[in-house]
């Protein structure tokens, strides 16, 4: 079995040249961070994902699109370990991942948001984002339970990092508000903040703009681009809004009925006949 | 003057009885706060802890009846083996060692509960977890019986018993020493628990797990570790409750029924509040006693059996989250 990172490094220059020819910014996109190989996921008799492979490169915004029920969220759940595929391999930062639990995967540096917002509703914005720092805290939970002293200084450092994120997402005014009381758009923003707090190497966003109005969508788009630009975070994004995807994604994977039907830059995907048929619809006239 | 003295005597004995209720309610609150599980087995946990403690103290061999039935032996205590007699006569452990050993058993039990029951139920509805704890209550009760026998046992860990002479001399009130010790222990326990959840950074992780399993996992919290810690602490609280109740009225299987008295306490105080459990316990204890002594005779007595539940029902009508419970926020 070839090592995926080695494989990627070999054709990096060709890749960069191709990217440049397409008018993208190759300097930002580095080697393969994650490679998903021949993943098949079944729930009883239903095959949610069938033999899907793709890679995710450092620093890119990688979109996964497809009609409802195409297997997008399942794919994300496989990547962050909620689902365990029956077949296939996942390589993350040069190592094959086997039978890991979601909290271990989170500690490896994969953070995520959820389609239906999974915040800690009774906690304040600040506390929610602080929980995102847990993976960064050196003293383990048991240690903290036994002796608070050394954990105290750590808390202060983490608090500073969290305040930066709060500034970045422009949510200072709701710092102390229990998130259950916040409007939907702001909750989505807090959830992004919690994921960012982990300083993830890979950030998974499940429909970050679903149910938002135009203004909120524009804000969220800006935040996602800024995260990618300023922190160089690699982002995998599921989104329904085609306009958004075409604007911000570097590369797009298209799924339909659990299978991959296209993979490439937004322009390539847009002109792909399979995609037009499956997702964008056949033009009338 | 005599009336006033009687009133205070009733009041104080009510407060002290309330402390005993609060001790049990505390265990419920801890698990509910930290994992969103209403743990029906908390009462049985207290019983199991008390049984185990007595077992260690008296040097009983666990599963003695089972072993005797299978192998036809006749041994009940460690001293029966090899004929050697320990210092206590039965080969039992000294009080402190027995308590420490019971603590370890409770922590091990918590680990077992997480591994066998809870980890298979991640992300399930609260009602399913609740049903699982009912099953757990039966299993634990059966295991307690099988391990240590069903007879009523005397639990003595050196706590003072009988009425306090100093208080009788000073005020003329009749107050049990054991209840005063219970109050002191409860205060220590509450302070310790508050320190634990406020001044250690566990608090946030605990609340996170209670709030949303998936989200907690996605930020790197290990549910199993958290659950283990929480159930261990609940086991320790159960041990304390088991010691106090056991010392007061003997270790018997009806001990597990005190869990039912904890329910109205929780409805009053709120399922999510440690101070609520204490205040709720006190209100129930005092209310019960005052009602019994002043109103009871007018309506035929025996009001202690139902007063707490009536009070709880009234609370459910007007303040469903209890006195100190978290307000339920629902966005429509």
Automatic annotation (TrEMBL), chain A:
Span of domain ABC transporter: 34-282
InterPro entries: AAA+_ATPase, ABC_AA/LPS_Transport, ABC_transporter-like_ATP-bd, BCA_ABC_TP_C, P-loop_NTPase
GO MF annotation: an example: ATP binding
Origin superkingdom: Bacteria
Pfam families registered for this protein in UniProt: ABC_tran, BCA_ABC_TP_C
Record carries keyword Protein transport: no
Keyword Glycosyltransferase: no
Keywords recorded for this protein, A-Z: ATP-binding, Nucleotide-binding, Transport
Family matches, as PANTHER family: ABC TRANSPORTER ATP-BINDING PROTEIN, CONSERVED COMPONENT OF ABC TRANSPORTER FOR NATURAL AMINO ACIDS-RELATED
Protein name from the UniProt record: ABC transporter ATP-binding protein
Organism of this sequence: Paralimibaculum aggregatum
UniProtKB/TrEMBL annotation, chain B:
Compartmental location: Cell membrane
Record-linked Pfam families: BPD_transp_2 (PF02653)
Main localization category: membrane
Its membrane topology: Multi-pass membrane protein
Keyword annotations of the record: Amino-acid transport, Cell membrane, Membrane, Transmembrane, Transmembrane helix, Transport
InterPro entries: ABC_transp_permease (IPR001851), BCAA_transport_permease (IPR052157)
Family affiliation: Belongs to the binding-protein-dependent transport system permease family. LivHM subfamily.
Protein name listed in UniProt: Branched-chain amino acid ABC transporter permease
Origin species: Paralimibaculum aggregatum
